[in-house]
Structure formats: structure tokens, C-alpha cells
Design a protein that fits this description.
Blueprint (H helix, E strand, L loop, with lengths): L4 H17 L14 H11 L5 E6 L5 E7 L8 E7 L19 E2 L2 E3 L7 H16 L7 E7 L10 H7 L1 H4 L3 E4 L13 E8 L1 E2 L2 E6 L3 E2 L9 H14 L8 H10 L3 H7 L5 H4 L5 H11 L2 E9 L5 E2 L2 E10 L5 H12 L6 E5 L6 E2 L5 H9 L8 E7 L5 H5 L5 E3 L9 H7 L6 E3 H19 L1
Parallel strand pairs: 3-6, 3-7, 7-18, 8-17
Antiparallel strand pairs: 1-2, 2-6, 4-5, 5-19, 8-16, 9-14, 10-14, 10-15, 11-13, 12-14
Amino acid sequence: MLPAADTVTAEVTDLLQHLIRNACVNDGTPESGQEIRSADLLAGYLEGPGCDLERYEAAPGRTSLVGRIEGTDPEAPTLLLMGHTDVVPVTPSGWSRDPFGGELVDGEVWGRGAVDMLNLTASMATAFKYLARDGFRPKGTLVYLAVADEEANATYGADHLLGHELDAVRADYVITESGGIPIPSPTGLKLPVIVGEKGLHGVHLTVTGTPGHGSQPFKTDNALVTAAEVVRRIAEHQPATQIHDIWRAFLEGMEYPDELVAPLLDPDQLVGALDVLPVGMARQFHACTHTTMAPTVMHGGTKINVIPDEVTLQVDIRTLPGQTSEDIHAILGDALGDLADRVRIEIDSNDPSSSSSVDTPLWDSLARLTPRWYGESKLVPFLTVGATDGRFFRRRGVPAYGFGLFSERLTIEDFGTMFHGNDERVDQDSLRLSTELWDAVARDLLA
């Protein structure tokens, strides 16, 4: 059994602080991340009787750690608790505190990764450690995965492990980030479970023009000027609203009043209905129901006195369930209009949307257990608009959910603002709640 709540809180807090201070920043380059620091930290924390630990290094320093508590029945299910150890880059000047200080202030741990997702990585490790020390020997197998490279393309993390070390991470059910933020509703708290995620269709656009002298711009074919118009058209384009099954199930599960739900289920009214919602919620709801296109990177020009003849753009396109490359290129064509012939489109990445059914023993287990902490609460399915490592398991037919258990101090509005944002922090009650949940799920699902 877990020790007293105060002990659990102190221990998971300390572990999270150390993970933040390791500063495993992943900027997408092969040499970044260096998750070996946190793999070593977690291995030292977990080493002891009751579990087996293995390290897997896909590239120098890009290390993932796998812990196992082997079940007694080979036919029983395996549950994988998966947390990543890398974090996204940070601009320190935008923070109120040192983003890698791991400071504890007024019951909150501050630092890059506090919500994405070192809080869950730490709480999963804490629960796993105490289950192992307790001599937990269930019928099913419990696996803990502290995985590298989630914040880029998982080339050195989950994708590598499933492609080259499948036996190490083989599972029947997976829990990873990032649901569980309590949402008030007229009929009690609702706890969103991430059952699916949007796809990523990154594109590289090249806009060409004709070079010339910067002192004579009149009637020149300036690729940068054309690219600016391309960016404007993409940013202002509004793809059609799509009411898909996960969105409908979420709204029905929230049990909001009909006057709020009806416009959010109407493709013709949804965008207008978002105006009355808090901005964080409005962004989430819009992204859940639309293909989104965000121009994020531009390169062009060679010298201040040379008219640019080529500009490249990168556009982050997030796709909805069922959408194909052909669908996305049609949307891009609509956005570009008469400039479509001036733009060469290349695909940087094509990672389709994925989802899992709610008709699983894992969903049933979570639904049984969460009222222990939140009385009349209910689970609701949700689609995350970002990407998680859960997609690699879903594509192999393995149900993967994003979940945790958070205090009411952490609102969905704050959570959305801090995710990849400034002043990221998580409260200690949330750390304790998630730790208690993992212990309970393992005992309920695997026993």
C-alpha cells in the first residue's frame, strides 16, 4: 500500500523537482533531449526488489527506461504507464521564476514540464516503486515507461521502441497524458479522458519570385511579398466545422444545458457560440472541431539590397478523424486561391488522427475508481488537439488513454495556457491524487 498522504506528496514532489532540474530540452535535433539524465535519475529511484529495469538507447543520450512487475498469469492483461522525460524549449525572460529551478512555492512546483508531462512521469514512478516494494504480484503485468523524444517525432522514443524493442513495451492497455482536469458541469464534475488525438500534417511551402536590386522595388516579383500574402490567406482561412463522434460524445457527457450544447453541435453556429466562452476553452473547442493551419516558420532573402527570389514556409496543420492528405491539399488550395500555382507544397510529416474505443476494461476501471476522490464525477471522452505517444499504440490496436487525476486548483483554462507556455506549474495535491490513482488502477485492473 502507499504510505501516508504527506509522505507520498513529499516524495513525488521531490522527484518532479529533480526531473525539472535535469532540463532535458528537446529542440528536435538528434543531440538534444539527453534524456539519459532522467533515465538515470528514475533508475536510481526505482532500483530495488520487486521490479526489473532496462534501459534502451536509440541514439547517444536518447535513453528510455522500462520497469516491469511481471504478472503471474500469461493470459492476463498488461497495463503500460507511459510518461515522457523530455520537455520543449523555453524563453526564460517570459517566466516569473527559473524555468528549470523546480521551485516549490505556495504548494505548487514550478518549471518547464510541470504539466507537460513530468508531473505524471513522476507520479507514475512513485506509484510503481511502492507497488514493487509492497510485493505486488498481480495476475496481469504492470509496465512503467519513461520515454524519450515525445516532444519531437518520437524517433528516439516510442516509435523506436515499438519498431525495435516491441517485447519491452508490449501492452494491452496504455495510459499517458493529458486528461483528468476536473471540469464543472450542472450535474457535477466531469473528468475528460483523452481517447484520441488530431493528426499532424506538416507542410513545407516554397514561394518563388524574381531577384532584383533592393533599390528598385517598383513592379518587382518579390517572393517575400507574395509569401506574406500566402501567410495571411492561410491564417484567415476557416475550414468547415466538423461534428465528429468524439466531440458529440464529449458534449453529451458534459450534460450542459441544451441552449449551450445545441449551437456547439451545429456546424453553422459553433464558431459564433465560441465568442461567449473563456479564450482557453474556445481555442480548445475550435481546434477539436476544425482542421487548423498555423504558419510557424519562414525563411527567405539573402541580403538587404537583394529582392528575394525564394521564400520557404512551414505550416503546422492538425487534422481531424478520417481526414486524408487529399483532404488537406484541397483545404490548402481553397486557402491559397489564385496563388496556388505560385506555391510548391511538400509534405514534412503525415501522421493521421487516431482514437480508442471507450468500451474497454480500462475505461470501466477508471470509471469505477475516480468517484473515490470525486464523489459523483463522471468520465467524458475527449480529443486532444496536440500529439502524444499514445498514437503509436492505437495504430497497433492497443487502447491508449490520456489521463491523470488533478485537483480543482488546476483549471482547464490554466492548464491550456501553461502547456508549452510560460510559468508552467502544478500543485502538490494533483501530484498526490495521480499517484494514488495509478496505485488503485494497477490493483483494480491487473489483480
